[in-house]
Write a structure and sequence with these properties.
Shape: elongated
Distance between the termini: 63 Å
Structural class: alpha/beta
Radius of gyration: 26 Å
Number of helices: 19
Strand content: 15-25%
Helix content: 25-40%
Strand order of the largest sheet: 7-6-5-8-9-11-10-12
């Protein structure tokens, strides 16, 4: 058996050909399992998928491969040989893909299709704890998960010449960047991860510059148009029990170093997007640490805290993720919580960080906010729109803004009322742009009327004059009072300049 799985390029090519010949693709598997079983499998329920593969009309080769690679089943060797022909079972055993076990054959790797808007890929990783008894290995390589997908969806997909996937793991981020980046450097401290990322790249006909090393060390002296990172950001004592989650750096140090040092590796106008965790000592000042990091970086920043986890919830998540025995999990969890208590940590912020190196010499544009609502996740489209709107606001004077014709996208006006002696009494109102992260603006009667009048037909100043006349106030005074809210609405994508 080779040092790392699938290190023979010829074997990778042959395996890819066999999998595709069996229609081992997103579309093929969805067709085999049906919509309900496919959805259940994505949500972590495996038995409906197993049932679907046992149907009499199921394609035997594809059904065998689904059970083998996606469900962790031990299959008869002759069925596996037929499903993967002309690749032999022995070649795949020697290549670290399969293992003979309990009178049959089982997979040692998780190989699965991964569909996007543009393509259907094959991704190679290690099988997680739900598919194998016992704890995962120290050098375990994560597959496609919720965190990696949320980051992939948040990345701005404009064309880039050079891109860096820092902490590539099995290569999910590099896989998505390949479609819009000319050159990709992918790094990791885990040699096994680099081996599986190489297999992922080759299975999909891609070529990445894979490098071993920590943080920015492998790319010292180089710069990029795009940096993407899903690092081992888990906050802990500095022990490195599992490479995929533990950086070996105490506390939230890995997130701090990635953010503070990003500027030196970005070209002017370059973007860095990453997931991060940060220690919180006071819930009222949850942004204190991450704010200091982005200010040190000198970069434009949009930081979104998606969740503030209490220590018990946080530790429970990561302890259960590794598949340890109840006894080991209890011991590790208790030690971890003891450390949090000694450090005075009351919570862990979890979220996304988008950084940008300005094209010109100016003060950094920094926004740090908490957005926890479902359906308001940061996407690449929204991140790109965020920076476009921030640039417009910075470069547009109040005079120019008053001369502009503004319009609203589809938004909702929501009111809050309380019962009183004279019936329902309105106590508040807000305008929301559906799907926009944090795209909510509190409004009063005047601002509600102003937004309703923004239909791209007359300049903002004219609308304000009409409102001022109606309410019997000076137009200049109303403009001065309204412009901060108008700018906030533009920044949130609730207003924009008409074409």
């Amino acid at each position: 058996m080779t040092a790392y799985p699938l290190s023979d390029p010829d074997l990778v090519d042959a395996l890819g050909g066999a999998l595709r010949a069996a229609d081992f693709s997103s579309e093929g598997i969805d067709g085999l399992l049906g919509e309900q079983a496919s959805t259940a499998l994505v949500n972590g329920s495996w038995w409906p998928a197993l049932r679907a593969t046992r149907r009499a009309d199921a394609d035997p080769a594809l059904a065998t491969l689904v059970r083998l690679f996606l469900l962790g089943s031990t299959e008869p060797e002759f069925q596996v040989a037929e499903a993967l022909a002309p690749v032999t079972v022995q070649a795949l055993v020697d290549g670290g893909v399969l293992d003979r076990f309990d009178g049959g054959v089982r997979a040692l790797l998780d190989i699965r299709p991964h569909g996007s808007d543009a393509s259907d890929y094959l991704v190679v990783a290690d099988q997680d704890a739900s598919m194998r008894p016992g704890a995962v290995e120290h050098d375990h390589v994560l597959g496609i998960g919720g965190a990696s997908m949320s980051l992939a969806q948040a990345v701005i997909r404009t064309p880039a010449r050079r891109a860096l996937d820092l902490g590539t793991g099995c290569g999910v981020q590099a896989l998505h960047m390949d479609g819009h980046c000319d050159e990709i450097v992918a790094t990791d401290t885990n040699p096994r991860a680099l081996a599986l990322a190489a297999a992922t790249a080759r299975l999909n006909g891609m070529h990445w510059d894979l490098r071993d090393g920590s943080l920015y060390e492998p790319v010292e002296g180089e710069t990029f148009d795009l940096i993407v990172s899903n690092p081992p950001f888990v906050v802990g004592t500095g022990a490195q029990d599992y490479i995929y989650r533990d950086s070996g750096i105490v506390g939230d140090g890995v997130s701090r170093q990635l953010i503070e040092n990003a500027a030196g590796y970005l070209n002017p106008g370059g973007i860095a997007q990453m997931l991060a965790n940060w220690v919180v000592y006071d819930e009222e000042r949850w942004d204190e640490r991450v704010r200091a990091w982005v200010e040190t970086s000198g970069l434009d920043a949009w930081v979104v805290q998606r969740e503030l986890a209490d220590p018990i919830s946080y530790v429970s998540l990561w302890v259960s993720d590794a598949g340890e025995s109840p006894e080991d999990a209890a011991r590790r969890g208790a030690d971890w919580l003891d450390w949090f208590e000694r450090e005075g940590i009351v919570g862990i912020g979890m979220g996304s960080v988008t950084l940008r190196r300005p094209l010109e010499d100016r003060a950094a544009d920094v926004t740090i906010e908490e957005i926890t609502a479902a359906g308001q996740e940061v996407t690449g489209f929204e991140a790109q729109g965020w920076w476009r709107r921030r640039d417009f606001l910075r470069n547009t004077s109040d005079e120019d803004l008053l001369a502009a014709r503004l319009t609203t996208p589809p938004v909702f006006l929501e009111t809050q009322s309380l019962p009183g002696d004279e019936g329902w009494q309105q106590v508040g109102a807000s305008v929301t742009r559906p799907g926009g992260p944090g795209a909510v603006l509190g409004v009063d009667e005047v601002l509600t009327a102003l937004l309703a009048g923004c239909r791209g037909q007359v300049p903002l100043a004219a609308l304000i004059t009409l409102l001022a006349d109606f309410h019997g106030v000076e137009a200049d005074a109303l403009a001065q009072a309204a412009l901060p809210s108008v700018r906030d609405a533009i920044g949130r994508g609730i207003l924009h300049v008409a074409d």
